[in-house]
Design the sequence.
């Protein structure tokens, strides 16, 4: 695009901007076109226009400020004021450390100009005096002081400037500056910030240079006490700050940071406000890069920020400032405008108003300004809060006698809102009908015009033809006006029609007839409902069949797409007329001389009538996705059956499994679908009724917590006790430790999402000193964040160690690469070092860096350092010593309850003996427990009392190595398997290596495997010796 085309496009865009000045995409386009012209004046005009209608970030303000400093007469007080006013405008929009830095630098430069220029104007000297500049710089620094990682940039400028002043100051001025800087240091030490050590050292130097030697020690002790709390506050947030750096200030990370701060019992207002400001700035910047989620995130951050200031009883001036900035930043947010209206209403009614609070704008004027942006009207969810806030204020004014009862005015406002809602959304406010309910209440209770309320609901039900809420509201208003026959007619008419919740219609009708009908009318109602139920059930069955067929088609397509090309058999070659197969490819391959087919690639010819069985490969099964395909159903009637749930959910999609669980005070169920696409439809069953009782349906993961970093001694009862205070616990799922004994996390599932959200308060709570609990909602989309799957990547394996090596020796080496989480020195049964260790870091990057320690000399030996792979090592070496030695300290447990968790079983066994690991064989309801030594195994085998686990009495016997029942002997004439091809399962926990040709083991009986010794046999054996 040449210059003339750019100018023409710019002209057309300006015309469009005059019509839609609040369309942010036009302003972004304006900036790009102005930049394309290469004309600085055009660019600054585009930036200025953008800043007039929206809050803008420092990418827009910094060039404008630079241009203003260049063109303004900074040798005069008026010119300096112009520049300072622009800084004030920029700082009101968003928090920006670069803008604040430039502001401080400008103030310092203006002060230096006045001090060094004897001819400076008197009013300029007054404006830029040392006292005025100190106040101004302190004010600018305070705006960014809550930014705990970057506020030092502002503080350091102030500190260095004041130290420069001290070098040349004398007499009273010097003493005043020392007092001011001392107060500034002490205030800074109490503020959390990243370089608090440097600040403390700087204060130490300041005290040495400007305080008496006798005061030095006491001053530093006092300062150290002052800063201790701030240091701890920063340390608690360092991980959140690190996450922000790692994710490049991702909005999701900011949201998690804010949630963490707000969960605190006493949130730090300074830090939380700064985090909100930083999140808002990050979202505003992403909005300019066409990030689709940035606008919504920006609205939510502003709403949360304004609510926090109000809930925290913040300064009213700060609340008003935040609300005004919010309406400028997101003028299309109805929720922010509604909060602004309510603040103006409260301020106007305050009997003792704050004189410094500027509330010159009325609610009516603010409403007019909000609607003039033409942004609110585009979104139903923004229209409704604005209309309700404006109408609510108007209604309260009428009730208090402060406004005339203008029926036409307030009803006109609400009806206009209803029209806008229906125009902005095809479905409208079908789930709430919030404006309609407000209008109806006004007609009935305020203006005593019930006929108009009836007309309103009649029109609403005609518009929302399939909404049960509209029809039941219509019937309710008729009943309140004693128009029973008309209400009965409405129920009868709608009972057989297709509505979104017919059961609610039928229930309301039946309740109405019981209250106002005769016996004949009640029976007639029941008969019609029965016919309607049959019709609805038939329709739902048809829809379910159709949905099931479509789901089958999609699954088949996905399954076909998942088969690798190599697994698809080639098409059969067509036969020539002479009956000989064409061998074009084979001939070409031989002739070419470069492509040679392997013998195993050529299919063996099959003789006619061959009895060789055809081996057809099974199609790959679709991966089971329980977390995304399962809904959790609660508040069920006590006698609820699986069939009732299957009927309720059958129209949602193919059901894989339903489990109904009876808890002490409630009945719950899990419904797992074959496809995750079925879940949205299943969630619409929330608030439906079974046996007349309203049920709750939600995603199972929404009521599940991922918990880690709890005390190592914690068991199932401990976790249930800690988390049971926040609601009824449905299940606690423990991880298996058969591959990694240090795994310490657990999933806690409540019967309701609200309990899970309440329990998030435990996040960060120290159950033991220095051990802060980590609690998160178990969102499957963030699965990587709630698992120890990367534990091996954070762990290194160190070999070649001297027997004199200690944990402290290893920590001294590896802590130089990052924070060390754990060190495990391998020892044999006698407690002697085995010459290797595992070092686990907090971060994967630190583990990678630690590989540099390979070949490091420690105690006259060269050590080898590699990344750990405990899973492979566990498979290769199930225990210390040989496999037979491992079996000698293992026992087999039979008669396990179905669904036994390895983690829970290991917890129970650890109360009796020292257990290394447990492996459960679910298909056999058996397990093998490997203990620390044969003596520990003997403890289990010689227990005088039986072991009971979850209601089942376990059978304990010596482990022989067989984990499977023997295969039946082959029948005569069966497929011959050569001895050399005999299957050789890998030895390991619960398996033994068999030699080729060995006779198959006998199937295990209920009393134990053949050759196994039970507790009585073991006692007899000991007694003979």
Sequence:
């Amino acid at each position: 695009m040449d210059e003339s085309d750019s100018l023409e496009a710019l002209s057309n865009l300006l015309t469009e901007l005059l019509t839609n000045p609040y369309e942010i995409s036009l302003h972004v386009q304006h900036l790009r076109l102005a930049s394309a012209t290469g004309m600085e004046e055009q660019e600054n005009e585009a930036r200025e226009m953008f800043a007039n209608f929206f809050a803008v970030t420092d990418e827009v303000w910094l060039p404008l400020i630079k241009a203003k400093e260049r063109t303004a007469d900074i040798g005069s007080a008026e010119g300096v004021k112009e520049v300072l006013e622009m800084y004030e405008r920029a700082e009101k929009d968003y928090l920006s450390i670069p803008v604040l830095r430039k502001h401080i630098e400008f103030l310092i430069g203006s002060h230096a100009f006045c001090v060094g220029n004897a001819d400076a104007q008197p009013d300029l000297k007054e404006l830029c005096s040392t006292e005025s500049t100190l106040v101004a710089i302190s004010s600018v620094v305070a705006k960014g002081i809550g930014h705990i990682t970057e506020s030092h940039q502002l503080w350091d400028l102030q500190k260095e400037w004041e130290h420069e002043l001290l070098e040349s100051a004398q007499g009273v001025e010097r003493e005043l500056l020392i007092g001011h800087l001392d107060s500034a240091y002490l205030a800074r030490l109490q503020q959390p910030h990243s370089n608090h050590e440097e600040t403390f050292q700087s204060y130490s130097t300041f005290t040495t240079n400007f305080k008496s030697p006798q005061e030095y020690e006491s001053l530093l002790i006092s300062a150290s006490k002052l800063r201790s709390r701030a240091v701890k506050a920063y340390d608690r947030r360092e991980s959140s700050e690190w996450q922000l750096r790692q994710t490049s200030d991702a909005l999701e990370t900011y949201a998690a940071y804010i949630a963490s701060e707000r969960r605190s019992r006493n949130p730090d207002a300074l830090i939380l406000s700064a985090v909100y400001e930083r999140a808002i700035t990050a979202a505003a910047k992403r909005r300019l890069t066409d990030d689709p989620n940035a606008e919504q995130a920006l609205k939510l951050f502003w709403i949360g920020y304004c609510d926090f200031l109000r809930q925290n009883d913040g300064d009213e001036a700060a609340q008003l400032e935040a609300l005004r900035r919010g309406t400028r930043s997101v003028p299309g947010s109805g929720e922010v405008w509604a909060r602004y209206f309510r603040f103006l209403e409260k301020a106007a009614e305050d009997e003792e108003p704050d004189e410094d609070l500027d509330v010159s704008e009325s609610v009516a004027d603010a409403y007019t300004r909000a609607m003039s942006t033409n942004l609110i009207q585009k979104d139903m969810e923004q229209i409704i809060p604005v209309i309700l806030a404006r109408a609510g204020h108007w209604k309260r004014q009428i009730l208090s006698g402060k406004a005339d009862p203008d029926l036409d005015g307030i009803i006109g406002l609400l009806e206009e809102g209803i029209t806008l809602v229906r125009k902005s959304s095809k479905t409208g406010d079908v789930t709430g009908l919030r404006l309609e309910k407000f209008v109806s209440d006004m007609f009935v209770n305020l203006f005593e015009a019930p006929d108009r309320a009836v007309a309103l609901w009649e029109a609403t039900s005609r518009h929302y033809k399939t909404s049960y809420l509209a029809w039941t509201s219509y019937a309710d208003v008729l009943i309140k006006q004693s128009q029973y026959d008309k209400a009965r007619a409405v129920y009868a008419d709608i009972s057989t029609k297709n509505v979104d919740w017919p059961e609610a219609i039928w229930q309301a009708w039946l309740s109405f007839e019981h209250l106002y009908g005769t016996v004949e009318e009640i029976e007639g109602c029941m008969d019609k409902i029965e016919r309607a139920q049959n019709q609805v059930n038939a329709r739902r069955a048809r829809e379910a069949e159709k949905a099931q067929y479509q789901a089958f088609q999609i699954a088949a397509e996905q399954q076909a797409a998942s088969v690798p090309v190599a697994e698809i058999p080639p098409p059969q070659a067509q036969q020539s007329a002479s009956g000989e197969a064409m061998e074009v490819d084979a001939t070409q391959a031989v002739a070419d001389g470069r492509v040679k087919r392997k013998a195993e690639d050529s299919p063996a010819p099959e003789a006619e009538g061959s009895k060789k069985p055809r081996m057809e490969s099974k199609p790959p099964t679709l991966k089971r996705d329980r977390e995304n395909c399962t809904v959790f159903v609660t508040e069920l009637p006590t006698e609820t059956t699986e069939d009732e749930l299957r009927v309720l959910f059958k129209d949602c999609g193919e059901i894989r499994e339903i489990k109904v669980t009876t808890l002490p005070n409630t009945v719950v169920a899990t419904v797992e679908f074959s496809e995750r696409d079925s879940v949205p439809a299943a969630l619409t069953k929330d608030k439906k009724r079974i046996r007349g009782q309203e049920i709750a349906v939600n995603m199972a993961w929404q009521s599940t917590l991922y918990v880690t970093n709890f005390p190592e001694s914690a068991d199932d009862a401990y976790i249930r006790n800690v988390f049971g205070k926040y609601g009824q616990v449905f299940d606690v799922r423990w991880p298996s430790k058969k591959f990694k004994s240090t795994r310490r996390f657990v999933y806690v599932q409540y019967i309701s999402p609200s309990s899970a959200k309440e329990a998030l308060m435990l996040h960060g709570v120290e159950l033991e000193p220095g051990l802060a609990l980590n609690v998160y909602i178990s969102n499957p989309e963030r699965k990587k964040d709630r698992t120890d799957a990367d534990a091996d990547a954070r762990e290194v394996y160190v070999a070649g160690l001297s027997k004199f090596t200690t944990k402290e020796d290893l920590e001294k080496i590896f802590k130089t690469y990052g924070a060390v989480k754990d060190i495990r020195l391998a020892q044999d049964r006698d407690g002697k070092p085995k010459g290797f260790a595992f070092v686990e870091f907090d971060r994967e990057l630190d583990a990678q860096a630690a590989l540099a320690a390979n070949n490091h000399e420690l105690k006259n030996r060269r050590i080898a350092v590699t990344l750990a792979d405990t899973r492979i090592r566990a498979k290769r070496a199930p225990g210390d010593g040989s496999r037979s030695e491992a079996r000698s300290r293992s026992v087999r447990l039979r008669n396990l309850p179905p669904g036994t968790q390895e983690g829970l079983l290991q917890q129970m066994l650890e109360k009796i003996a020292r257990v290394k690991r447990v492996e459960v064989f679910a298909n056999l309801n058996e397990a093998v427990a490997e203990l620390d030594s044969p003596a520990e195994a003997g403890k289990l085998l010689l227990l005088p009392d039986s072991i009971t686990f979850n209601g089942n009495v376990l059978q304990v016997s010596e482990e022989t190595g067989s984990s499977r029942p023997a295969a039946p002997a082959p029948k005569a004439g069966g497929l011959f398997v050569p001895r050399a091809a005999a299957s050789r399962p890998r030895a390991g926990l619960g398996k033994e290596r068999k030699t080729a040709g060995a006779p198959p083991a006998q199937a295990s009986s209920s009393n134990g495997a053949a050759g196994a010794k039970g507790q009585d046999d073991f006692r007899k054996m000991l007694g003979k010796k």
In short: The radius of gyration is 38 Å. The longest strand covers residues 833-841. Residues 519-562 form the longest helix (44 residues).
